[in-house]
UniProtKB/TrEMBL annotation, chain C:
Lineage per the UniProt record: Bacteria, Pseudomonadati, Pseudomonadota, Alphaproteobacteria, Hyphomicrobiales
Annotated localization: Cell membrane
Full protein name: Branched-chain amino acid ABC transporter permease
GO terms of molecular function: transmembrane transporter activity
Alphabetical GO biological process terms: amino acid transport
Annotated TM spans: 12-32, 60-83, 95-115, 135-157, 185-209, 265-289
Amino acid sequence: MSAAEEIVTEAPAVEAVPKRAMTLGYGTSLVVLAALILIPLFVKNFIIFQMTMLLIYALAVMALNILTGGSGQFSLGQSAFYAVGAYTSAILMEHAGMNYALTLPIAGIVCFGFGFLFGQPALRLSGVYLALATFALATAMPQLLKLGYFEHWTGGVQGLVVTKPDAPFGLPLSQDMWLYYFTLAVSIAIYVASVNLLRSRSGRAFMAIRDNEIAASAMGVDVALYKTLAFGVSAGITGVAGGLGAIAVQFVAPDGYTIQLAISLFLGMVVGGVGWLPGSIVGSAFIIFVPNIAEGISKGLSGAVFGVLLFLVIFLVPHGARQVAIVAQQLAAKLKKN
Amino acid sequence: MLSTVRIAAIFAAITAVAATSTAAFAQKKYDTGASDTEIKVGNIMPYSGPASAYGVIGKTEEAYFKMINDQGGINGRKVNFVSYDDAYSPPKAVEQVRKLVESDEVLVVFNPLGTPSNTAIQKYLNSKKIPQLFVATGATKWNDPKNFPWTIGWQPSYQSEAQIYAKWLMKEKPDAKIAILYQNDDFGKDYLKGTKDGFGAKASSSIIMEESYEVSEPSIDGHIVKIKAANPDVLLIYTTPKFGAQTIKKTAELGWKPLQIITNVSISVGSVMQPAGFDNAQGVLSAAYAKDGSDPQWASDPGMKKWNAFLDKYMPGVDKTDNGVVYGYGAAQTLAKVLEMCGDDLTRANVMKQAASLKDFAPDTMLPGVKINTSATDFAPIAQLQMQRFKGQKWELFGEIISGDIPSE
Amino acid sequence: MELFANQVLAGIATGAIYACMALAVVMIYQAIDHLNFAQGEMAMFSTFVSWQLMQWGVPYWGAFVLTVAFSFAAGIVIERLLFKPLAKAPILTNVAGFIALYAIINSVAGLIWDFTIKQYPTPFGSSPFLGSQLISTHQAGMIGITLLMLLLLFFFFRFTRVGLAMRAAASLPESARLVGINTSWMIALGWGMASAIGSIAGMMIAPVVFLEPNMMLGVLIYGFAAAVLGGLTSPFGAVMGGFLVGIFENLVGTYIPGVGNELKLPIALALIIVVLVVKPAGLFGRAIVKRV
């Protein structure tokens, strides 16, 4: 409209998070890990199933977190990558008879490529424009999956039923228990790799771009490469999560991967704390359990109760679980001093 | 000697007691979820999310069982209806059904809604041998007792309904050019397939256009304009209610009068025909198996009077033009009938057996003459429909009651 | 050729729906600098309010004016109560707030008015317009109202003190404060106006798509797309964007063989992305120059 729009200083969409603050201390990590390993031994199978889904969504939320919190790019299209991963695994298992464990890296690689390619045009877009582009991807995906041309592979609107794997080597574990520990192992591996990635040269490049793109390029960071790379990595991890999700739910269908899922993952990231990887599991818990709580309070108004609960959370802790963690840390430090 | 006799007598007495007690056990048999006082029934519905309009079915069923309980329950047992929200998402459906089975320990899962959700839980329920009773979807695949002996449908299948239209058209309008408008999902595609199967070899020559739309489109006027350009004589409308009303209204606005046949899903007088405009809807055809809550011709029908009395007492203020209210009542009544037939043998196997032994059962909301019949090889409870034509402000039934049973492939 | 002309006309008719909504999207973008996901639901709720008023016997235009006033007030109240406290929170947290608002409004409307579709009256009638059956008098009226709103907005932003202050507050909040503009209230005013425009859009759209709690779900997607295509800073661009998306979509569905019909939304969106890649600020928007 006028020269007035030449913005001198613009608040970045994502405030800078120092890289050490993106992770968790060793002590806390071990406690969380111990809980994740031990709890399933004492609970019913369906809770184990819920915990499996918790880990899977946590992976997907973390993938978004790497993209948004790490490189400052915003995506409402994560459900599309999740869907591609899920379908890749399902098709390989059901049509090619491949072992479920082998399908996951393939799902990851396929999604990495897909995300990397999508990142190319996305380079030119930022802010709301990128949001719209990714949003378009999320709306388009279910329609692509339904397309008659792929129906032989995707099962079209009916989807594909997937067989749940048994525990290998005759281990005396139920299917659910085995799948849980399998998912846990995969999640830990990806989490550790992600933490290392963000601490590496590439991670520093991501964060430099997030904080100030122009300054980063002046410092010699290949902005285009690292931005698309961030998209690829994020999509790849989401794809693995999608593959695991397909195995756990034993079913893939276009209706499972709508924009609703992308919005849930986004909410998970905000509630967990943008840019704080360990928060992903808190965010994941929010998107799985809070709708159940809302429904328990009122069936007719479950949507409204969910909305109110979400408002409560963002009013109390606008920075998500990260803020809680920081407060807790400060408290602990004070106690130590005393 | 004497002692031996005595011992023998005692022994005989013991066996006799044992025998009678086993007989008593034979009368009262329970699986998880049933007891002397209670039968636990699980259900999932989309109370939130894009399909939340169907949530009213679950609410109606809950109210129905409240009425049953107020009347003393079924064979003296109260029905505990536990219903969860799956938001029309298959992963959530699996989570909620597992919660119903493993945490709430229900006897059966009843009337879960939606083809994707039901497909997602079918394998799980069948492997656990838990009845997946009267699913709320019209896909053909629920009638497959050989592969899925624990899953049974309820409403007429979409494909069989479409076949009825195709057969009627071949007889009444053999030379008509036909266009199909369908929703691009499992529901629309089932109708498309049924229509083509019904036309058989004539399909390719009769059907000149297949036009699909997405449920996310705000208005489907563009599709109607496109179909009109192809100038068909007959328009088959395989849409959900909102788009059905849009289609009927738009064709009238275009000054176009093809013969229109609309799916049974979208025939509510109050929530499709009236919004579309009664003038625009004259002459539209469809097929029905249930009475319409907003159709004045059933005002003095004894079954619908019961339905009205139930709504006034247990769901005051509910929108009676909503088809879901009629649907939920009929489905719940069918389950109540099955549980009553089970007597004191409330095992899952017996529930399934009774569900597959319904003979000429007619819930209050069915059209006169439409009856529910099932058998060990027929898991499609409602298989009858009657053609109807919209005239004035109500549907006029015509022709015979047609049975449209088709086996699952 | 006749089919082509018909599809373009039908596209304009549908595009009017998108254009209406896109105006509301641009309005909120001008005021708060991002998109409001709950905007469609707010418009839907307003439309239900007007419907309820008419059920109670208020005549159409009376209900219309009351609803616009109500929506304006409600927009301001929502901003003061729910989003002012979040002013200092990160943008993404605000977006989560929009999603929460969306869920609340949708669910409450469903509870009050049920999910069955309702007929909504039009003041313009629905007979053919100028002899063309493709555009009804209602759709012509809707286009007229949209253009009228566009004109009013143009004058508001260009010539009124409040309009200028609002623009200043959105683009340079600190400088605006220095010259004595109450930026916080400017944002509230923006919410009120966006909500009022949304309510008009809702009342114009409802006769075509029927009134029900989910009526805006698809409309908002297209409204966003239209606004972004035209340029989020330009009300004129948004309206043009709306018509273009409508025409785009119909032509894709008609002329791309095979997948065109099944994929018309994805293809239309892909085209928009292509446009954005070439012109990142939209067709009619001004590029924002950023200084380091």
